[in-house]
């Protein structure tokens, strides 16, 4: 029985990952802690009502260090002496209004959510993760933040988002190297282009498909994924010829 904490669970991939986890038997997933900024939306409330007490919400403002510390205490109480097995850092911001790198003014605010908040929350929950069985942190990365593929994704509208994801990939790698001797797994997962508020309605994948494929990464060999940026695998997309393909391979970052 594993415990999970998913940030940004009000909508999009976060909501769908909570739904997927809640659909698994209690013998596999014991509790899902879903963080939200305010009241739980109807879709999340529905999941909670059907989860027989296995989905619990906590209010989290990831950019408020004091609130992060408070939430870590709440999570400890919820777990009741058990450790946290999996942390999924899903919260992110992106400016979908196209701009160039020379006109970017949101670098600091984007880093605050996409990188600094991940660092602060991971550190706050590290004692609980050390007490867990799986000791796993999944950071939501992105192929658009890959330096190797920078030219391919010049069409992406938000340079600040891309730079922040490049930094997140590096942060993931550093954690993996530093804590692998303790049995930790840190992995960044690129979910591709998804039909969320950020991705828009014409994206490649719907949220349920991308959420399931993202969580499927956790079933892979831990040594194979530790410290890497990993692509999701979606049947029928392994050999796509557009900007994205979803073949489950490692991505250069």
TrEMBL record:
InterPro entries: Fungal_SecMetab_SDRs, NAD(P)-bd_dom_sf, SDR_fam. GO terms for cellular component: cytoplasm. GO terms for molecular function: oxidoreductase activity. Belongs to the short-chain dehydrogenases/reductases (SDR) family. It comes from Hypocrea virens (strain Gv29-8 / FGSC 10586) (Gliocladium virens). The lineage of its organism: Eukaryota, Fungi, Dikarya, Ascomycota, Pezizomycotina. This is Uncharacterized protein.
């Amino acid at each position: 029985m594993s415990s999970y904490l998913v940030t940004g669970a009000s909508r999009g991939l976060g909501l769908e990952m909570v739904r997927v986890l809640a659909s698994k038997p209690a013998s596999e997933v014991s509790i899902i802690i879903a963080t939200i900024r305010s009241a739980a939306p109807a879709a999340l409330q529905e999941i909670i009502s059907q989860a027989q007490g296995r989905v619990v919400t906590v209010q989290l403002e990831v950019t408020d260090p004091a609130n992060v510390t408070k939430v870590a205490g709440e999570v400890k109480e919820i777990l009741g002496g058990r450790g946290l097995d999996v942390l999924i850092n899903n919260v992110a911001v992106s400016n979908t209004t196209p701009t160039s790198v020379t006109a970017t003014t949101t670098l600091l605010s984007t880093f605050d959510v996409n990188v600094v908040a991940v660092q602060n929350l991971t550190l706050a929950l590290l004692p609980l993760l050390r007490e867990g069985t799986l000791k796993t942190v999944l950071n939501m990365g992105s192929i658009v933040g890959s330096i190797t593929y920078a030219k391919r994704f010049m069409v992406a509208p938000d340079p600040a988002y891309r730079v922040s994801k490049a930094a997140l990939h590096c942060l993931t790698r550093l954690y993996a190297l530093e804590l692998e001797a303790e049995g930790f797994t840190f992995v960044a997962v690129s979910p591709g282009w998804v039909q969320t508020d950020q991705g828009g309605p014409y994206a490649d994948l719907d949220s349920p498909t991308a959420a399931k494929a993202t969580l499927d990464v956790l079933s892979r060999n831990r040594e194979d994924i530790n410290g890497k940026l990993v692509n999701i695998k979606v049947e029928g997309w392994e050999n796509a010829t557009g900007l994205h393909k979803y073949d489950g391979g490692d991505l250069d970052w």
